[in-house]
Amino acid sequence: MAKQHKKLSEADQDLVVWRAAKHVRDGTAVELPRVVRTVASATKLLTERKIKLVERVGGDTMIFGPIRGHACDFANILLSKVLPNQHIKNIIFLGNYIDGAHQSLEVLFLIAALIVCSRFHIIPLIGKHEMMYPIQPENFGSLRNEMLLCCARSPQTSLEDCENVMKEFFAVLPIACVVENKYFCVAGGPASGYRTLEDMEAKRVTQDSLKEFVLNEPMDEDEERIADGSTFVASQSNELAFRYTFNAACNFLSRNRLGMLIVGMEYHTSRPDYDSFARPNHYKESIYFPGYMLGRIHPETQVPAVLTIFSAPSFCGVNRNNACIVEITDKRLEVQELGVYAKRPLVTPGTQDHAFSWAQPMLERAVVAIAREIIFGAIKEDAPPESDSHHKRLEEIAVSKMRRMCQLLQAHELPLPEVPKLPPDE
Questions:
Q1: Secondary structure letter of residue 158 according to DSSP
Q2: CA separation for the pair 213, 207 (Å, rounded)
Q3: Which of 32, 80, 371, 412 qualifies as a FRET site for 323, CA 20 to 30 Å off?
Q4: A biological process (GO) annotation for this entry (predicted)?
Q5: Which one is predicted more confidently, 277 or 181?
Protein backbone atom coordinates (compact mmCIF):
# COMPACT_ATOMS: atom_id res chain seq x y z
CA MET A 1 0.00 0.00 0.00
CA ALA A 2 2.90 2.35 0.79
CA LYS A 3 4.34 1.79 -2.68
CA GLN A 4 0.95 2.14 -4.29
CA HIS A 5 0.15 5.56 -2.86
CA LYS A 6 3.17 7.17 -4.54
CA LYS A 7 1.70 6.41 -7.98
CA LEU A 8 -1.75 7.81 -7.20
CA SER A 9 -2.91 11.36 -7.78
CA GLU A 10 -4.32 13.40 -4.92
CA ALA A 11 -7.85 12.68 -6.13
CA ASP A 12 -7.15 8.95 -6.22
CA GLN A 13 -5.57 9.09 -2.76
CA ASP A 14 -8.65 10.82 -1.39
CA LEU A 15 -10.80 8.15 -3.04
CA VAL A 16 -8.88 5.36 -1.30
CA VAL A 17 -9.28 7.00 2.10
CA TRP A 18 -12.91 7.89 1.33
CA ARG A 19 -13.71 4.25 0.57
CA ALA A 20 -12.00 3.09 3.75
CA ALA A 21 -13.90 5.66 5.85
CA LYS A 22 -17.19 4.78 4.15
CA HIS A 23 -16.48 1.12 4.82
CA VAL A 24 -16.01 1.80 8.55
CA ARG A 25 -18.90 4.26 8.87
CA ASP A 26 -21.31 1.74 7.36
CA GLY A 27 -20.34 -0.75 10.05
CA THR A 28 -18.69 -3.25 7.69
CA ALA A 29 -16.08 -5.28 9.54
CA VAL A 30 -12.48 -4.68 8.49
CA GLU A 31 -10.52 -7.90 8.28
CA LEU A 32 -7.68 -8.14 10.77
CA PRO A 33 -4.97 -9.01 8.19
CA ARG A 34 -5.88 -5.85 6.27
CA VAL A 35 -5.60 -3.74 9.43
CA VAL A 36 -2.23 -5.28 10.27
CA ARG A 37 -0.84 -4.70 6.75
CA THR A 38 -1.97 -1.07 6.71
CA VAL A 39 -0.56 -0.32 10.16
CA ALA A 40 2.75 -1.99 9.22
CA SER A 41 2.91 0.13 6.05
CA ALA A 42 2.27 3.27 8.12
CA THR A 43 5.08 2.32 10.50
CA LYS A 44 7.47 1.86 7.59
CA LEU A 45 6.51 5.20 6.07
CA LEU A 46 6.91 7.09 9.36
CA THR A 47 10.33 5.48 9.81
CA GLU A 48 11.38 6.49 6.29
CA ARG A 49 10.21 10.04 6.96
CA LYS A 50 12.50 10.06 10.01
CA ILE A 51 9.73 11.62 12.02
CA LYS A 52 11.00 13.43 15.10
CA LEU A 53 9.75 13.22 18.66
CA VAL A 54 8.86 16.91 18.43
CA GLU A 55 7.53 17.84 14.99
CA ARG A 56 7.00 21.36 13.59
CA VAL A 57 4.44 22.11 10.91
CA GLY A 58 3.14 25.20 9.14
CA GLY A 59 0.07 25.93 7.07
CA ASP A 60 -3.59 25.11 7.53
CA THR A 61 -3.91 22.41 10.17
CA MET A 62 -6.69 20.31 11.65
CA ILE A 63 -6.31 18.81 15.13
CA PHE A 64 -8.13 15.80 16.58
CA GLY A 65 -8.34 14.96 20.26
CA PRO A 66 -8.61 11.42 21.71
CA ILE A 67 -10.84 9.16 19.59
CA ARG A 68 -10.90 6.20 22.01
CA GLY A 69 -12.28 3.59 19.64
CA HIS A 70 -15.14 5.67 18.20
CA ALA A 71 -14.41 4.62 14.62
CA CYS A 72 -17.85 5.26 13.09
CA ASP A 73 -17.95 8.85 14.37
CA PHE A 74 -14.33 9.37 13.34
CA ALA A 75 -15.07 8.06 9.85
CA ASN A 76 -18.06 10.39 9.58
CA ILE A 77 -15.88 13.40 10.51
CA LEU A 78 -13.37 12.40 7.84
CA LEU A 79 -16.10 12.12 5.22
CA SER A 80 -17.95 15.30 6.16
CA LYS A 81 -15.24 17.69 7.41
CA VAL A 82 -11.76 16.53 6.38
CA LEU A 83 -11.77 15.04 2.90
CA PRO A 84 -13.95 17.80 1.36
CA ASN A 85 -11.62 20.48 2.76
CA GLN A 86 -9.17 21.49 0.05
CA HIS A 87 -7.19 23.91 2.21
CA ILE A 88 -6.04 21.63 5.02
CA LYS A 89 -2.40 20.65 4.73
CA ASN A 90 -1.67 18.98 8.08
CA ILE A 91 -3.69 16.73 10.40
CA ILE A 92 -2.51 16.22 13.98
CA PHE A 93 -3.86 13.51 16.25
CA LEU A 94 -3.35 13.97 19.99
CA GLY A 95 -3.10 10.28 20.87
CA ASN A 96 -5.37 7.91 22.80
CA TYR A 97 -6.83 6.26 19.73
CA ILE A 98 -7.64 2.97 21.44
CA ASP A 99 -9.59 1.45 24.35
CA GLY A 100 -13.17 2.51 24.83
CA ALA A 101 -15.88 2.13 22.22
CA HIS A 102 -14.89 -1.34 20.91
CA GLN A 103 -13.61 -0.17 17.51
CA SER A 104 -9.95 0.54 18.26
CA LEU A 105 -8.76 -1.58 15.32
CA GLU A 106 -10.91 0.43 12.91
CA VAL A 107 -9.56 3.71 14.29
CA LEU A 108 -5.97 2.56 13.82
CA PHE A 109 -6.85 1.33 10.33
CA LEU A 110 -8.19 4.75 9.30
CA ILE A 111 -5.25 6.66 10.79
CA ALA A 112 -2.79 4.29 9.11
CA ALA A 113 -4.66 4.69 5.82
CA LEU A 114 -4.35 8.47 6.13
CA ILE A 115 -0.62 8.16 6.74
CA VAL A 116 -0.01 5.74 3.89
CA CYS A 117 -2.38 7.04 1.26
CA SER A 118 -3.60 10.62 1.57
CA ARG A 119 -2.65 14.11 0.44
CA PHE A 120 -2.37 15.28 4.06
CA HIS A 121 0.73 15.49 6.20
CA ILE A 122 -0.28 13.30 9.16
CA ILE A 123 1.27 13.76 12.62
CA PRO A 124 -0.07 10.98 14.92
CA LEU A 125 1.10 11.76 18.46
CA ILE A 126 1.33 9.05 21.08
CA GLY A 127 -1.15 8.99 23.95
CA LYS A 128 -1.24 7.34 27.34
CA HIS A 129 -3.09 4.26 26.12
CA GLU A 130 -0.62 3.65 23.30
CA MET A 131 2.40 4.21 25.53
CA MET A 132 1.09 1.77 28.15
CA TYR A 133 -0.03 -0.90 25.67
CA PRO A 134 -0.63 -3.86 26.17
CA ILE A 135 -1.72 -2.99 29.72
CA GLN A 136 -5.50 -3.16 29.59
CA PRO A 137 -7.64 -0.46 31.19
CA GLU A 138 -10.27 -1.48 33.70
CA ASN A 139 -13.92 -1.45 32.67
CA PHE A 140 -13.19 -0.42 29.08
CA GLY A 141 -13.14 -2.35 25.86
CA SER A 142 -9.46 -2.72 24.99
CA LEU A 143 -7.49 -3.11 21.79
CA ARG A 144 -6.02 -6.39 23.02
CA ASN A 145 -9.45 -7.93 23.61
CA GLU A 146 -10.53 -6.86 20.14
CA MET A 147 -7.49 -8.55 18.61
CA LEU A 148 -8.12 -11.70 20.67
CA LEU A 149 -11.59 -11.99 19.21
CA CYS A 150 -10.39 -11.28 15.67
CA CYS A 151 -7.61 -13.85 15.96
CA ALA A 152 -10.14 -16.41 17.17
CA ARG A 153 -12.15 -15.79 13.99
CA SER A 154 -9.04 -15.69 11.77
CA PRO A 155 -6.72 -18.50 12.89
CA GLN A 156 -4.21 -17.61 10.15
CA THR A 157 -3.29 -14.45 12.09
CA SER A 158 -1.64 -14.86 15.49
CA LEU A 159 -2.10 -12.49 18.41
CA GLU A 160 1.66 -12.23 18.89
CA ASP A 161 2.21 -11.02 15.33
CA CYS A 162 -0.59 -8.46 15.67
CA GLU A 163 0.75 -7.15 18.95
CA ASN A 164 4.25 -6.80 17.52
CA VAL A 165 2.91 -4.72 14.63
CA MET A 166 0.98 -2.45 17.00
CA LYS A 167 3.95 -2.03 19.34
CA GLU A 168 6.22 -1.11 16.43
CA PHE A 169 3.70 1.49 15.27
CA PHE A 170 3.33 3.02 18.74
CA ALA A 171 7.14 3.09 19.15
CA VAL A 172 7.64 5.50 16.22
CA LEU A 173 4.92 7.97 17.19
CA PRO A 174 6.11 11.48 18.15
CA ILE A 175 5.40 13.14 21.50
CA ALA A 176 4.47 16.69 20.51
CA CYS A 177 3.93 18.97 17.55
CA VAL A 178 4.30 22.74 17.23
CA VAL A 179 1.98 24.45 14.74
CA GLU A 180 2.98 27.79 13.21
CA ASN A 181 5.45 28.26 16.07
CA LYS A 182 2.49 29.23 18.26
CA TYR A 183 0.55 26.16 19.32
CA PHE A 184 2.04 23.32 21.34
CA CYS A 185 0.07 20.11 20.72
CA VAL A 186 0.50 17.15 23.05
CA ALA A 187 -1.53 14.38 24.65
CA GLY A 188 -1.12 15.60 28.23
CA GLY A 189 0.48 18.99 28.77
CA PRO A 190 3.74 20.58 29.97
CA ALA A 191 6.32 18.66 31.96
CA SER A 192 8.67 19.99 34.60
CA GLY A 193 11.59 17.90 33.31
CA TYR A 194 11.66 19.74 29.97
CA ARG A 195 11.13 23.49 30.04
CA THR A 196 12.22 24.45 26.52
CA LEU A 197 11.61 23.10 23.04
CA GLU A 198 15.36 23.00 22.47
CA ASP A 199 15.74 20.48 25.29
CA MET A 200 12.92 18.38 23.83
CA GLU A 201 14.46 18.44 20.36
CA ALA A 202 17.92 17.40 21.53
CA LYS A 203 19.27 14.27 19.85
CA ARG A 204 19.70 12.39 23.12
CA VAL A 205 16.04 12.40 24.08
CA THR A 206 13.91 9.32 23.54
CA GLN A 207 10.23 8.54 23.65
CA ASP A 208 10.72 7.08 27.11
CA SER A 209 12.50 10.17 28.40
CA LEU A 210 9.64 12.40 27.22
CA LYS A 211 6.89 10.20 28.63
CA GLU A 212 6.16 12.81 31.31
CA PHE A 213 4.29 14.76 28.61
CA VAL A 214 2.01 11.76 28.07
CA LEU A 215 1.60 9.63 31.18
CA ASN A 216 0.02 12.36 33.31
CA GLU A 217 2.61 12.37 36.05
CA PRO A 218 2.37 15.10 38.72
CA MET A 219 4.63 18.06 38.02
CA ASP A 220 7.37 19.14 40.40
CA GLU A 221 7.88 22.85 39.93
CA ASP A 222 8.04 25.84 42.23
CA GLU A 223 4.62 26.88 40.98
CA GLU A 224 3.16 23.56 42.07
CA ARG A 225 4.59 23.73 45.56
CA ILE A 226 3.46 27.32 46.08
CA ALA A 227 -0.03 27.03 44.58
CA ASP A 228 -2.73 25.42 46.66
CA GLY A 229 -4.52 23.07 44.28
CA SER A 230 -4.29 22.71 40.53
CA THR A 231 -6.11 24.43 37.72
CA PHE A 232 -6.03 21.51 35.30
CA VAL A 233 -6.66 18.13 36.89
CA ALA A 234 -7.33 14.87 35.07
CA SER A 235 -8.34 12.91 38.17
CA GLN A 236 -8.47 13.87 41.82
CA SER A 237 -8.00 10.33 43.16
CA ASN A 238 -5.38 8.87 40.80
CA GLU A 239 -1.80 9.27 41.98
CA LEU A 240 -0.64 9.39 38.36
CA ALA A 241 -3.14 12.07 37.47
CA PHE A 242 -1.86 14.94 35.37
CA ARG A 243 -1.67 18.15 37.39
CA TYR A 244 -0.34 21.55 36.50
CA THR A 245 -1.27 25.02 37.59
CA PHE A 246 -2.19 27.98 35.44
CA ASN A 247 1.16 29.58 36.31
CA ALA A 248 3.04 26.48 35.14
CA ALA A 249 1.20 26.52 31.82
CA CYS A 250 1.85 30.24 31.30
CA ASN A 251 5.52 29.86 32.20
CA PHE A 252 5.94 27.05 29.68
CA LEU A 253 4.36 29.17 26.97
CA SER A 254 6.40 32.24 27.85
CA ARG A 255 9.71 30.37 27.94
CA ASN A 256 9.11 28.99 24.45
CA ARG A 257 7.36 32.06 22.95
CA LEU A 258 4.22 30.03 22.29
CA GLY A 259 0.61 31.15 22.28
CA MET A 260 -1.41 28.18 23.51
CA LEU A 261 -1.25 24.60 24.75
CA ILE A 262 -3.62 22.26 22.87
CA VAL A 263 -3.92 19.05 24.84
CA GLY A 264 -5.82 15.87 24.02
CA MET A 265 -7.26 14.97 27.37
CA GLU A 266 -10.67 14.18 28.80
CA TYR A 267 -12.00 17.08 30.83
CA HIS A 268 -13.71 15.65 33.91
CA THR A 269 -16.63 17.40 35.55
CA SER A 270 -18.60 15.79 38.35
CA ARG A 271 -22.31 15.16 38.43
CA PRO A 272 -23.65 14.07 41.84
CA ASP A 273 -26.78 12.34 40.56
CA TYR A 274 -24.92 10.40 37.87
CA ASP A 275 -24.12 7.31 39.94
CA SER A 276 -27.55 6.17 41.10
CA PHE A 277 -29.62 3.03 41.36
CA ALA A 278 -31.44 3.86 38.12
CA ARG A 279 -28.26 4.53 36.13
CA PRO A 280 -25.10 3.36 37.91
CA ASN A 281 -21.77 4.64 36.69
CA HIS A 282 -20.29 1.34 35.51
CA TYR A 283 -17.13 3.01 34.22
CA LYS A 284 -16.40 4.91 37.46
CA GLU A 285 -15.65 7.96 35.37
CA SER A 286 -16.95 11.50 35.40
CA ILE A 287 -18.73 13.23 32.55
CA TYR A 288 -16.71 14.35 29.51
CA PHE A 289 -18.45 17.57 28.57
CA PRO A 290 -18.77 19.43 26.25
CA GLY A 291 -15.85 18.13 24.14
CA TYR A 292 -13.56 21.08 24.67
CA MET A 293 -12.56 23.37 27.54
CA LEU A 294 -10.82 26.72 27.37
CA GLY A 295 -8.40 27.58 30.15
CA ARG A 296 -7.87 30.95 31.79
CA ILE A 297 -6.59 33.94 29.81
CA HIS A 298 -2.84 34.29 29.47
CA PRO A 299 -1.85 37.69 30.96
CA GLU A 300 0.46 38.58 28.06
CA THR A 301 -1.18 37.12 24.96
CA GLN A 302 -4.75 37.68 26.21
CA VAL A 303 -5.83 34.32 24.76
CA PRO A 304 -6.67 31.13 26.68
CA ALA A 305 -3.50 29.42 27.84
CA VAL A 306 -4.87 25.88 27.43
CA LEU A 307 -7.39 24.32 25.06
CA THR A 308 -8.45 20.78 26.02
CA ILE A 309 -10.16 18.78 23.26
CA PHE A 310 -11.80 15.36 23.11
CA SER A 311 -12.99 13.86 19.82
CA ALA A 312 -15.06 10.87 21.00
CA PRO A 313 -18.74 11.92 21.08
CA SER A 314 -21.09 10.31 23.61
CA PHE A 315 -18.09 8.54 25.08
CA CYS A 316 -18.75 4.78 25.32
CA GLY A 317 -22.47 5.43 25.05
CA VAL A 318 -22.50 6.66 28.65
CA ASN A 319 -21.46 10.31 28.62
CA ARG A 320 -23.38 13.02 26.79
CA ASN A 321 -20.46 14.95 25.36
CA ASN A 322 -19.91 16.20 21.83
CA ALA A 323 -16.77 15.64 19.78
CA CYS A 324 -14.40 18.53 19.17
CA ILE A 325 -11.88 19.26 16.43
CA VAL A 326 -9.72 22.36 15.96
CA GLU A 327 -8.87 24.04 12.68
CA ILE A 328 -5.99 26.51 12.41
CA THR A 329 -6.15 28.57 9.23
CA ASP A 330 -4.67 31.93 8.29
CA LYS A 331 -3.63 32.80 11.85
CA ARG A 332 -7.10 31.93 13.10
CA LEU A 333 -8.11 29.11 15.43
CA GLU A 334 -11.62 27.68 15.08
CA VAL A 335 -13.15 25.15 17.47
CA GLN A 336 -15.85 22.93 16.00
CA GLU A 337 -18.19 20.75 18.03
CA LEU A 338 -19.68 17.69 16.36
CA GLY A 339 -22.37 15.36 17.60
CA VAL A 340 -22.79 11.62 17.31
CA TYR A 341 -23.23 10.15 13.84
CA ALA A 342 -26.96 9.42 13.93
CA LYS A 343 -26.82 6.38 11.65
CA ARG A 344 -23.87 4.67 13.25
CA PRO A 345 -24.43 0.93 13.74
CA LEU A 346 -24.73 -0.62 17.15
CA VAL A 347 -21.40 -2.17 18.08
CA THR A 348 -21.84 -4.76 20.79
CA PRO A 349 -18.93 -5.25 23.16
CA GLY A 350 -16.59 -8.14 22.79
CA THR A 351 -15.85 -8.91 26.42
CA GLN A 352 -17.87 -10.45 29.19
CA ASP A 353 -17.38 -7.37 31.39
CA HIS A 354 -19.65 -5.38 29.07
CA ALA A 355 -22.29 -8.06 28.57
CA PHE A 356 -25.16 -5.74 29.52
CA SER A 357 -23.66 -2.28 29.01
CA TRP A 358 -24.99 -1.84 25.49
CA ALA A 359 -28.45 -3.19 26.44
CA GLN A 360 -28.83 -1.09 29.60
CA PRO A 361 -31.24 1.52 28.11
CA MET A 362 -33.50 -1.18 26.67
CA LEU A 363 -33.44 -3.12 29.93
CA GLU A 364 -34.26 0.03 31.89
CA ARG A 365 -37.27 0.81 29.71
CA ALA A 366 -38.63 -2.72 30.13
CA VAL A 367 -38.18 -2.68 33.90
CA VAL A 368 -39.81 0.75 34.21
CA ALA A 369 -42.79 -0.44 32.15
CA ILE A 370 -43.18 -3.50 34.38
CA ALA A 371 -42.91 -1.43 37.56
CA ARG A 372 -45.52 1.06 36.38
CA GLU A 373 -47.96 -1.71 35.61
CA ILE A 374 -47.38 -3.34 38.99
CA ILE A 375 -47.87 -0.08 40.88
CA PHE A 376 -50.58 1.61 38.83
CA GLY A 377 -52.22 -1.28 37.00
CA ALA A 378 -55.77 -2.23 37.91
CA ILE A 379 -56.16 -5.33 40.08
CA LYS A 380 -59.21 -7.26 38.93
CA GLU A 381 -59.88 -9.19 42.10
CA ASP A 382 -63.05 -9.49 44.17
CA ALA A 383 -62.92 -7.50 47.38
CA PRO A 384 -62.85 -9.64 50.55
CA PRO A 385 -65.83 -9.59 52.90
CA GLU A 386 -66.00 -6.72 55.35
CA SER A 387 -65.79 -9.19 58.21
CA ASP A 388 -62.19 -10.11 57.28
CA SER A 389 -59.42 -8.47 59.17
CA HIS A 390 -57.20 -5.69 57.84
CA HIS A 391 -54.27 -8.12 57.73
CA LYS A 392 -56.24 -10.48 55.48
CA ARG A 393 -57.03 -7.58 53.15
CA LEU A 394 -53.34 -6.60 52.79
CA GLU A 395 -52.40 -10.21 52.17
CA GLU A 396 -54.90 -10.56 49.33
CA ILE A 397 -53.74 -7.30 47.77
CA ALA A 398 -50.13 -8.56 47.86
CA VAL A 399 -51.15 -11.85 46.27
CA SER A 400 -53.06 -10.02 43.56
CA LYS A 401 -50.09 -7.79 42.76
CA MET A 402 -47.76 -10.79 42.63
CA ARG A 403 -50.11 -12.49 40.19
CA ARG A 404 -50.16 -9.31 38.12
CA MET A 405 -46.37 -9.15 38.15
CA CYS A 406 -46.11 -12.76 36.98
CA GLN A 407 -48.47 -12.01 34.12
CA LEU A 408 -46.30 -9.06 33.08
CA LEU A 409 -43.11 -11.11 33.30
CA GLN A 410 -44.67 -13.71 31.04
CA ALA A 411 -45.78 -10.99 28.63
CA HIS A 412 -42.17 -9.70 28.43
CA GLU A 413 -40.92 -13.29 27.94
CA LEU A 414 -38.66 -13.12 30.98
CA PRO A 415 -37.89 -16.38 32.82
CA LEU A 416 -39.61 -16.81 36.20
CA PRO A 417 -37.80 -18.29 39.18
CA GLU A 418 -39.03 -21.60 40.49
CA VAL A 419 -41.40 -21.17 43.44
CA PRO A 420 -41.29 -23.89 46.11
CA LYS A 421 -44.59 -25.57 46.83
CA LEU A 422 -46.23 -24.64 50.11
CA PRO A 423 -47.55 -27.33 52.47
CA PRO A 424 -51.35 -27.72 52.55
CA ASP A 425 -53.25 -25.76 55.13
CA GLU A 426 -54.02 -27.66 58.33
A1: -
A2: 10
A3: 32
A4: calcineurin-mediated signaling
A5: 181
